[in-house]
Amino acid sequence: MKLFLRFAFFLCCYLPIASNAAVVLIYHHVSNSTPKSTSISPEDFEAHLQYLETNQFKVVPLTDLVDAIRENKTLPDKTVAITFDDSYRDVYESAYPILKKRNWPFTFFVNTDSVGKGKLFVTWDQLREMSKNAVTIANHSTSHNHMVRQNGGESLAGWKRRVEKEITVAQEKIEQEIGFAPKIFAYPYGEYNSELKSILDKLGYISFTQQAGALSLTTDKQILPRFPFGGSYTGLDDFKLKVNSVALPVSAVKFYSANKKHLKTNTVKAGDQPYFDIQLADVTLTKKVNCFLNGEPMAIETENTLVKIAFKKPLEQGRTKVTCTAPSGVKGRFYWFTQLWLVTNKKGEWGYKD
Q1: Do residues 48 and 179 both lie within one domain?
Q2: Range of the domain at 126
Q3: What gap in Å lies between CA 78 and CA 120, rounded to an integer?
Q4: In this structure, what are the phi and psi dihedrals at residue 81, rounded to the nearest 5 degrees?
Q5: 141-160 residue pLDDT tens
């Protein structure tokens, strides 16, 4: 009986929850001659796939995971979906042959205006070929602009009409050229705000960010995470850590200004020093969570299942990501959650370019 109780305790308290352990990977370029920050070499990409194969991960179409999320079904452990963004031709020339020889599916999020435009981008004929060989072609907008940003002099209503058209026209183009387009969307640059999320929700999409983390049935369906790999984040050790991650069971996220005023979205001005709360579904994890900004620990306060995360200094313009992790109790496996902040200039305008 004692042995049984010890085993039951191990299962209950130390093994990761299988329904929080499916992972989506995102790549851009698979090439040695493209910008390093968004590229992985074919050799390193092959090493990633070999690790998945050797360690018996199941590679499934992203649409299978989306269907499970829509239907609130279990997301099985050691399950991976592979995705690519931005319509780059080297996905067809380099990644596609490597994946095809394994008969592994993947999803290619394409910005439709770029397709067929010069040597950098794929053609519709190439996309049609891939779609016949386990590749899902999906929506990444028409122009791949910073969708959260209003143009100068543009009203909020005008912005909403414009971005909705971006999404709808791209979807229609994919349907026209490929014959089918699933209702999934990947945010250009991984940027979103509450208004853009609402538009996608109204249109019936499930949407993906570039925030690192494993999938969870409790995650907002308009900000599902994907682990990005490129630049300095292509090594096998880093890949192993992320592909074995488990979703931190976050049931709610709330944003606040420095003076404790509730914020409706994740966008602030340069010079602001906000904080945010994450509500965990498991009280035992609260004291184990650590959060980081650019590798530096952040200030954390905890109370029951609430974790309050504060920035130590005012934010600068650009995209800011906070990563929170906690040990799962199984060697090499960590709970993982990432929160994106978008920071305008001090006037509330974007005023910068990437």
Answers
A1: yes
A2: 16-245
A3: 34
A4: -120, 140
A5: 999 999 999 988 889 999 99
